[in-house]
Amino acid sequence: xxxxxxxxxxxxxxxxxxxAYKENKNDFNFFNVMYKGNEEVTLxxxxxxxxxxxxxxxxxxxxxxxxxxxxxxILKIDDFDFNGCEVMPNEQEKSEFEEIDILIxxxxxxxxxxxxxxxxxxxxxxxxxxxxxxxxxLERYFSTIKNGKDxxxxxxxxxxxxxxxxxxxxxxxxxxESIGILNNPENKGILKTxxxxxxxxxxxxxxxxxxxxxxxxDFIQQYLKFIIKMSHDxxxxxxxxxxxxxxxxxxxxxxxxxxxxxxxxxxxxxxFTELEKSLTEKYEILKSPTKLTKDEKxxxxxxxxxxxxTSIVISFRTKTNKELYIANxxxxxxxxxxxxxxxxxxxxxxxxxxxxxxxETFKMLNETNRKTVIEEIINExxxx
Length: 384
Known about the structure:
The model has no long low-confidence stretch (mean pLDDT 86). It is built from 12 helices and 10 strands. It folds into 2 domains: 23-236, no CATH class; 252-383, no CATH class. It is α+β, with helices and mostly antiparallel strands. Helix 1 runs antiparallel to helix 8, helix 4 packs across helix 7 (196-208) and helix 7 (196-208) packs antiparallel against helix 8. The chain has helices at residues 3-19, 30-34, 40-52, 65-74, 137-147, 176-179, 196-208, 214-246, 250-280, 299-304, 359-362, 367-383; strands spanning 86-88, 102-106, 111-118, 162-169, 191-195, 284-287, 312-317, 323-329, 332-337, 345-346.
């Protein structure tokens, strides 16, 4: 076995390893529909903060049950006073306090927990050196709450003596510039990094609580599935990165990666070229994605290069002047009468040309498979 074959075999093993964590395509998940996954502020911080907030309507026996589970069981902070504490953002106040992703604060006890949430974004670049103790992102948040003043010396609402800083991340660690004065001996132990595996633990604890509203429980379960997949996608990417890093046959691998977008384009172009040839024997071609005017967009390129669910359409006319079409879009292959959109029919095989990770789509690289699919399409069209 040569190096490239060995690499591809190891790559397949990684794929099989994470196959079990793929979501069932028939399962509805609100977070998959509404978000891409890496929205740190608009998705993850907001949803976590909502669950933590004592003022949120969870339906639990105690209004701060989720918060206590998080602070005591996950963060392992056992001296925090929950009486009268606040969490920001929350249902009423949806903005971050001084740009802090999640702030848990007890104004009376002068205690605070600062959570910086990182998925893919880097730490904010340091500010001008004149903002001593406020230049780095994490040290700025810490100093703002510790001193009760922002970087310009303006007073803020909260000033706390006991502060914990947590860096929540999939795989990142904070930069030295971001940490700043939190590296000083007097601040030892204030900053700790936690992973999203801890968020998974916490959500599972929340689901065990009694009297949680069924709607809230459903959202927690969906979010849990969402971040489990997100976490495993990240681990999978790191394993593939490590595999690439240690492989010596880099020219072949780089060529494969670099050329695959062209491979996809030519596969789809061949499919529609061969489909058009078969249709031409019986029908008049009206519009083809393989024959574009200079003003028409290349739908095949958008689907294969940009991974957009762009509709790739070929239309034709029967001898009885009926206009029909065959298209590939977000629903896969569909066909029907051009002027009767309500009766468009899905093709039996799930082929989506913007998603080559789909097995049926990938098989279209093979000429025999393309020919078989085209014959089946023609047969279904004739029945129509």
